[in-house]
Amino acid sequence: MASPLDHDPNFHHYWSEHPRDKVFGANIKDFSSRFSGFSTCHPIYHENTMLLATRHAIYSAAVSTEETATFMLLPSWNKMTTTNPYASLCRKYPRICKFLGTTPLDQLQYAKVPFWNNIQIPLSKHSWELQIIAIWNT
Question: pTM of this prediction?
Answer without folding.
Answer: 0.76
